[in-house]
Amino acid sequence: MTSTTEQLSATTLLRFATAGSVDDGKSTLVGRLLHDSKSVLADQLEAVEHASRSRGQEAPDLALLTDGLRAEREQGITIDVAYRYFATPRRRFILADTPGHVQYTRNMVTGASTAELTVVLVDARNGVVEQTRRHAAIAALLRVPHVVLAVNKMDLVGYEEPVFAKIAEEFTAYASELGVPEITAIPISALAGDNVVEPSGNMGWYGGPTVLEHLETVPVSHDLTGCHARFPVQYVIRPQTAEHPDYRGYAGQIAAGTFRVGEQVAVLPSGRTSTITGIDLLGEPVDVAWTPQSVTLLLADDIDISRGDLIVPSGDAPATTQDIEATVCHVADQPLVVGQRVLLKHTTRTVKAIVKEIPSKLTLDDLSQHPAPGQLVANDIGRVRVRTAEPLAMDAYADSRRTGSFLLIDPADGTTLAAGMAGESFATARAAAPETDDEGWDF
Length: 443
Prior knowledge:
Blueprint: H1 4-10, E1 12-20, H2 26-36, H3 42-54, H4 70-75, E2 82-88, E3 91-97, H5 105-112, E4 117-123, H6 130-141, E5 146-152, H7 161-178, E6 183-187, H8 211-217, E7 231-232, E8 235-237, E9 249-253, E10 258-260, E11 264-268, E12 272-281, E13 284-286, E14 288-290, E15 294-299, E16 310-313, E17 320-330, E18 336-337, E19 341-346, E20 349-363, E21 368-371, E22 375-376, E23 381-393, E24 405-409, E25 416-422
Parallel strand pairs: 1-3, 1-4, 4-5, 5-6
Antiparallel strand pairs: 2-3, 7-16, 8-9, 9-15, 10-14, 11-12, 11-16, 12-13, 12-15, 17-23, 17-25, 18-22, 19-20, 19-24, 20-21, 20-23, 24-25
Helix pairs in contact: 5-6, 6-7
C-alpha cells in the first residue's frame, strides 16, 4: 500500500500567486480552494467560524483563512503576502495570496517572482480596471508562463455569459499585447463555490475546467538542467586542518544547469579558466550535480575566487558589463531618482552603483512609455540604466529568472528600492527605450 508521503513525493509542485483589485475576492477564492479541497484542519475551520460569528456573519468568512494580520481582518483587505501550502492527490501547491490595494502592488512582485502561474481576479461587475492591467503587466514582466483570469462574483451578474465573454476578451487582448504566452479565463463565484473546486450548475454555457482542475493539470517544468549552467559562489571553504591541509572548495546553490567533474569552467568576472576536479554533495563526492542542489565545487587551479563570483561553463559565459539596462518595479516609499547612489545585489554579489538614467515609465492604460520621468515612485514600472562600480556577469531575464534579476538597495539603511529584470521589458519587446549617450558616468 502506497503511503501518503510516497504519493505526494511522486506528484509535481506548482507555485502560483493570486492578484486582483481590492474586494475582488482573492482571499475568499483561496479560502474556498483550501476548504473545498479539504486542505483545512478542523481547528482552523472552527477558529474561522468563531471569528465570523463574532462579527455577526452566519456563514464562515473563508477569507480569514489567509488574512491573518489584525489590520487585514479589521479592514477586510489583504496587506501582506500570505503563503499557503496544500496538496491534492494530483499535485502539491505553494500559493502566494498577494494584496490587491494599489498601495501594496509591490507585494505582488514578491509573491509572483517565483510563480509559474498567476491567478488574476476580476469583479464581474467592474470588469478590467487599472489595477487589473497593472497585475497583468507585472506578470508579463516577471515572465510568469501561465495566467488565469478568474472572473469572480458571477452570481451578482446573474451568471450571464455575455458579461464573462466581454471581460475575457478585453483582458486577453491586453495581456497578449504584453506577451503573456498563455491565458485561461474561468467564470467563478468564490463565495458560492461555483467553478472553484466543483463545476457550477449555474453556468451550463461554460465547458472549461474549474480553477482547481486547471491548477492540477497545467503543465509546469522545473527542469532547469538544460539551461545555461550558472553557479554563484556563496562561500569559500578552507578548513586548513591536518585532515584537509590543502582543501579549497567553493560552496553555493546551482542557479541553473548541470556541472560535471572534468568540465572546463570560467570564473567571472575575472574570466580565469580551470577544470572541475571534484563535486561534494552533502559531504559525499559525486560526478554530476544540477539545479537546485547546494554543492561544493573543487577546481584544478588556485584562482582568486570569493563570494559573488560566478562559475560557468567556459564555452557558455554571459558577457560581463558595468552598464545594466533593465526594467524595474519600484517598491520603496521614497522615489528612485537619476544620479542616486545605490547598492545592486545580483545573486550572491553586492556592488556599488549609480542610477545614470531613467529613460521611461510605463503607462498601463495603453502600454505607452512616458519619456524621461526623472524619477520612479512606489509601484511605478520603468526602464533604468545603472552603472556599477565593478563588472557583473548578468544574463537577460528572458533567459534566466535567477541570474537575470537583481535588487536595488538604499546603502544608508538597507531598504529595498526596486526589483530589476535585465534586458527587454516584455516578450514583445515593445517597451524598449532608445539608446542614449553614456558619456559622463563617473565610475
